[in-house]
Structure formats: structure tokens, C-alpha cells
Amino acid sequence: MDSTPPLPASGGPPPFPPAPGPGTFEPGAVKVFGVMHLIFAAMGLFWGLYSLFSPFLAHLFVSPKDPSYELQMKLQADLKWVNLGTGVMVLVLAGLMLVAGLKLIRSDPDGVKWSILYAWISIASKIISAIVGVLVVVPATKAMMRGVFESSGMPAGMGGQMASIMDTMMSVSGVASPLISCTYPALVIYFFTRPGVKAWCAALRPSAS
After folding, report:
1. Is the pLDDT of residue 10 over 60?
2. Burial profile 140-164: b = 16 or more Cβ within 10 angstroms, e = fewer
3. Rounded CA gap, 114 and 99, in Å?
4. Which long-range contacts (CB under 8 A, 24 or more apart) does 183-191 make?
5. Got the DSSP string for the chain?
6. Which whole number is the average pLDDT over 157-182?
7. How large is the average pLDDT for residues 71-78?
């Protein structure tokens, strides 16, 4: 028996399957950022709750016998509103990441929109955090550290040198830390505004059908 498959009626080769259109394949960034969002959201929930409650629990972590007890309590009192504001903002960002992550894991294109919303709010909050750090947190912490060195019994020259070193480190950290933490939201904006992701979102939206 002849096992040669029959040719099409025209006698030519079988037609090639149509090439996949734009947006057919899910970009790898969708699932990667979905998982990362959920991880960072869990960390954010923990850190946000800690920031909210830390002003009320500070006395539990410092012994009243510590020579710097009063200074540390004053610092906590001065920065109470900063910690509370930070806690609220971190919880808001964690909530946005949680929603975005769950949607991305389910391949819901709305997860991209929620991710970009999170990213812009996150960058704005970190710029505000850097400004508050320079104007409020760093000066208050410097004052506390100088008081600690003065009450430690160190020679005046050594205590002044230590205070100067700590001042420099805190000034750099107060600005650099918030700016470095903008890296993740900046990556979110970069990857989720790429043409491939936009095409995938457009192909899955009801308006695209």
C-alpha cells in the first residue's frame, strides 16, 4: 500500500501555519515580577507594621540603666510622626504590590497597570523620604549621637572625631538609601513599558477582541 500522504488539490506543498501575532506570548517579566512583588509585599507588610508600632515599643529595647536611655527616648519621641508616616506609606505600597503580584501571577494584564501605579508612588515616596531624612531624621540622630559620645566618658578629641565620622555616614545614608531603593520600581517601569508587554496587554484586553 502506498503510504505517501496525499497532496493538496493544487498539487503544491501544504500551507504553513500562520505566524503568531504580537502579544501572543506572555513576556517573562510578567511572572518574574509577579513573584517578586509578592515577596516584597510580605516584607513590606512586616516592615510597615514594625514602623507603626516601634514608637510605642522603644522603651522595651533600651534599658533604663543605659546612660543614653533619655537621649534615645527623646529621639523616638521626636521621630514618632516620621515612623508613623513611614509605616502607613510602606503598608500602602505593600498593598499595591500584593494586588499587582496576584494579578500578574494569574496572567491578568491589569497587573501591569497596578505595577506601574505602585512604581510611581514608590519613587515619589522615596524622594519625600530622602527630603525628610535630610531635614529631620539626620539632624535629630546627629544630636542624639553627639549626646551619647559626650556622656560616654571619651576624651573630648576622640568623641568629636567619632561624632564627625557618624555625622558623615548618616548624611550619606540619609540620602543614598532612599535613592538606591528606587532601583526596583524603576525596573518595573522600564520592563512594563516595553513594546512586548504593551502588545501582550492589548491582546488580552476585552477591547482587543
Report:
1. no
2. bbbebbbbbbeeeeeeeeebeebbe
3. 7
4. 184/36, 184/40, 184/122, 185/118, 185/119, 185/120, 185/122, 185/123, 185/126, 186/119, 186/123, 188/33, 188/115, 188/116, 188/118, 188/119, 189/116, 189/119, 189/120, 191/27, 191/29, 191/33
5. ---PPPPPTTSSPPPPPPPPPTT-SPPHHHHHHHHHHHHHHHHHHHHHHHHHHHHHHGGGTS-TTSTTHHHHHHHHHHTHHHHHHHHHHHHHHHHHHHHHHHHHHTT-THHHHHHHHHHHHHHHHHHHHHHHIIIIIHHHHHHHHHHHHHHTT--HHHHHHHHHHHHHHHHHHHHHHHHHTTHHHHHHHHHHTSHHHHHHHHHHSGGG-
6. 73
7. 80
Between the alpha carbon of residue 15 and those of residues 12, 21, 186, the distances in Å are: 9, 17, 45
Look at 58 and 117; give whichever has higher pLDDT: 117
Would you state the cell numbers that stand for residue 36, as one nine-digit string?
Answer: 517578586
Q: Whole-angstrom Cα distance, residue 196 to residue 23?
A: 7
Cα(32)–Cα(169) distance, integer angstroms:
35
